[in-house]
Specification:
- This protein has 271 residues and is an alpha/beta fold.
- The protein folds into two domains: 2-129, no CATH class; 140-269, Glutaredoxin.
- The protein has helices at 59-68, 100-130, 168-172, 174-183, 199-208, 220-226, 255-269, and strands at residues 8-10, 46-50, 73-79, 82-88, 140-142, 147-148, 157-162, 189-195, 214-217, 232-236, 242-247.
- It has a seven-stranded mixed β-sheet with strand order 6-5-9-8-7-10-11, with helices on both faces. Strands 1-3-4-2 form a four-stranded mixed β-sheet, with no helix packed on it.
- The protein starts with 7 loop residues before the first strand and ends with a helix.
Length: 271
């Protein structure tokens, strides 16, 4: 699914577009050219509609297709300075116009959306991006004032938690994470919690709430590279390779304890 990042999909039947990204059917009365403010002499951006074979549609052809064909979907992509909407009925109609592996990725994401909703799609994207990858470079601002990197935690298994103070599911699972720390207190496992909240805010939170991980603050964008959803748990081997990923909180919060034990033990047995 990594190739999906080349395209942005907008399903007209799923209501997953933002207000700024309305479906083509909603924009059926818009003009072909949508000029945006830009410096004098700069090329204006355009909105272009194509069919599944890549042919550019006139406004009349587009309206006719939308009016006469049920179940039309739209694939939105950025091409040079243009925003293109590719109108199609079945994903397989796009083969020959966009790469087959991209079509396969879109089908996979659509099936995930149907079975597990947007959360399942996001989780799969995160897993595709990070599983079996090495932790990246980046500053970890620790509560004691030191600045560390993920490399400083190599040599031991690392259980990494992404959270933030306003995240209620993150807070609800903390007692179970504390139990996890206690269970593995005599083993070579580090438990690190990272938030985009400031160091003073994290300290204030910890003065009122027990959360027995090692704590640090990271840049919000750096955290979102890992996951835009919290809580997130990344289980990392002693070489700094991400082996397992759990995104979001289970419906029954206490289940996170057993889930994390399961993946920790699995990784322990691999080495």
């Amino acid at each position: 699914m990594r190739n999906y990042l080349l395209l942005i999909i907008c399903f007209t039947m799923l209501s997953c577009a933002t207000k700024e990204e309305a479906s083509p059917k909603e924009n059926s009365k818009s003009t072909e050219q949508n000029q945006t403010s830009s410096p004098e002499g700069a090329q204006m951006s355009q909105i272009v509609f194509r069919d599944a074979q890549g042919n550019v549609l006139t406004e009349a052809q587009k309206d006719s297709l939308l009016e006469k064909t049920s179940g039309i979907q739209a694939l939105r992509r950025i091409n040079d300075n243009n925003t293109e909407y590719i109108l199609f009925k079945e994903f397989d109609d796009l083969r020959g116009f966009i790469p087959d592996d991209t079509v396969d990725n879109l089908i996979q994401e659509y099936n995930l959306m149907q079975s597990g909703g947007r959360g399942a799609v996001i989780t799969q994207r995160i897993i595709d991006t990070w599983k079996d990858q090495k932790l990246p470079e980046g500053d970890l601002n620790m509560l004691d004032g030191s600045v560390k990197s993920f490399k400083d935690f190599e040599g031991k298994m690392l259980v990494l938690n992404f959270w933030y103070i306003a995240c209620s599911p993150c807070i609800l699972e903390m007692p179970y994470l504390n139990q996890l720390v206690q269970k593995y207190q005599n083993e070579d496992i580090e438990f690190l919690a990272l938030s985009f909240d400031s160091i003073p805010d994290i300290k204030n939170f910890l003065s009122r709430n027990e959360f027995n991980y090692i704590h640090g603050s990271i840049d919000r964008n750096f955290m979102y590279q890992f996951t835009p959803v919290s809580p997130g748990h990344f289980i990392v081997d002693k070489n700094g390779i991400i082996r397992e990923i759990l995104i979001g909180a289970p419906r029954n919060t206490e289940q996170i304890y057993g889930k994390l034990i399961s993946v920790i033990e699995k990784i322990k047995n691999e080495f």
